[in-house]
Amino acid sequence: MVTTRTSQTEDGSALELSPIRRGVTRERTSDLVFQELQGAIRDLRLTPGLSLSESALTRQFAVSRTPVREALARLADAGLVQVTPQVGTRVARIRPAEVREAQFIREHLELGAFESACANPTANHARLTALVEEQEQAFRDRDEELFFASDEALHRTMFELAGFPGAWEVVQSKKLQLDRLRRLTLPEHSTTRELITEHTAIVEALKNRDVAVGRKVICDHLRRVLTQLPRLQHEHPQYFAEQ
To answer: Are residues 168 and 138 in the same domain?
Structure first.
């Protein structure tokens, strides 16, 4: 069982991250640190604007400074952290322009995946149905983590049924800013209910090979984050950059 350590960031905020454990795949320690930090930023365990201490992260992960430094450099290149000389390192704030670009990429790739999945005569929809049922259970239990994972799995499965699983990886690489916004809305029970209703409609349209209905629901579904953006900026101004 992996225990979790608590340390302090540069601004004194408590931070919980698990020590790095290398598996049998012989992955580089810096890659594991990068993956953990990227996931924590995506999940808002590391909130936008939070100060990060290299020494604190080193203690937290129980690794040397070198892999932490390498991971932070990669995160900076990806625009997920900002390094200011003589000032320090912070988790990058959410940039609305990047959110809109990521949404554009995701919408167009997902519409293509839906149409291709509709055209697949051997597509098995049982997995999608099971995932909607899992989301219903997560909703009843107010299990945000299960809902988020099941949501991801449903969209990934649609790309797999289309025969383009690699396209989902492209979406994943671009939508981290979207995921941070989604995390802000998940505690809203009404929003989760609406998402499940839309997922159900997408799955039904796919089963019926109804491209027109499916495209309409997917567009509404994926543009939801853009309609929520102004409100989230107003409610959480400390998390957002100006542009």
So the answer is: yes
Predicted pLDDT of residue 86: 80
Q: How distant is the alpha carbon of residue 174 from its chain centre?
A: 10
- Tokens, residue 16: 């919980």
Q: How far apart are CA 40 and CA 56, in angstroms?
A: 15
Mean pLDDT is lowest, of 9-13, 155-159, 213-217, for: 9-13
Rg over CA atoms, the chain: 19
Whether 119 and 42 share a structural domain: no
Show which of 91, 117, 142 is a domain's final residue: 91
Long-range CB pairs of 11-20 (<8 Å, 24+ gap) are: 11/50, 11/51, 13/50, 13/51, 15/46, 15/56, 15/60, 16/45, 17/45, 17/57, 17/60, 17/61, 18/61, 19/60, 19/61, 19/62, 20/61, 20/62, 20/63, 20/67
What does pTM read for this prediction? Answer: 0.83
Indicate if 49 and 134 belong to the same structural domain.
Answer: no
What is the CATH classification number for the domain harbouring 100? 1.20.120.530
Is residue 198 within 8 Å of residue 220, measured between CB atoms? yes
Count of CA atoms in the C-beta half-sphere (13 A) of 49: 9
Rounded distance, CA 230 to CA 16, Å?
Answer: 30
- Measured between alpha carbons, how far is 187 from 69 in angstroms, rounded to an integer? 33
Torsion of CA 189, 227, 239, 145, to 10 degrees: 30
| Domain range for 40 | 5-91
Residues 30-55 pLDDT 10s: 999 999 999 999 999 999 999 999 99
